[in-house]
User: Fold this.
Amino acid sequence: MTTEVFYTHAINPVALDLGFLKIHWYGVMYLVAFAIAWWLANRQAAEPGSGWDKEQVSDLLFYGFLGVLLGGRLGYILFYQFNYVLQDPLYLVRIWEGGMSFHGGLLGVLAAMALFTRKYRKSYLALGDFVAPLIPLGLAAGRIGNFINGELWGRPTDVSWAMVFPTGGDIGRHPSQLYHVALEGLLLFAIIMLVRRAKPATGTLGGVFLAGYGMARFSVEFFREPDAHLGVLSLGMTMGQWLCLPMIIAGLAIIVFARSRAATAGAKA
Assistant:
């Protein structure tokens, strides 16, 4: 397959080299993600009648930070590299090598949210609605970090926007990291904010995020190169697609439940 490419990846993954310390773009993108979440969370908290104060926002972001890092890394090891970490235990903490799993991070955040609701006695569904808008743009920042690292590239293609990633060979590939940015980041954020304007039933935004992310990730997986050590699994689906199915089902179920509960409450009023 002859491919005309318009870009060959040659970005240095190190943002700043101090000799004794190297600051990687991947880590910088995580800081950007949490800065965006902090800004959006405080904007929501400042809205009249939000029921949130700055201390609660700070605590929520701290819980979420730990959930993302611990869950993301442990999830990656569990879902993708369990045998590898047995051979090299220090790989567990080398997050700049790109070994983070969104699905593991999600489980970590869900667990952190449960601890947060116990401390502040907030509704879990309402907390999900508060958190949902904070995530997509952070995901976009993380995927930009993947792109800068030249990792998680797409499958070979001859489309006009094909890119060459040196670690993927001298062939044109889908820039699937940027597809993630567009669908899981920008588009999903826009959808959530549009739904939020309609003031939907409690729990709806959390459900929209779960289902929306699952559908977006499931779609991008058709263009993303499967993990070499896993390949395509049963029914021709990748690990990412299999992990997204429960998200889609759970998200749709939460939306239906939220609407049904609101309708029942309205009938009793």
About this structure: Residues 47 and 185 are 24 Å apart (CA to CA). The radius of gyration is 20 Å.
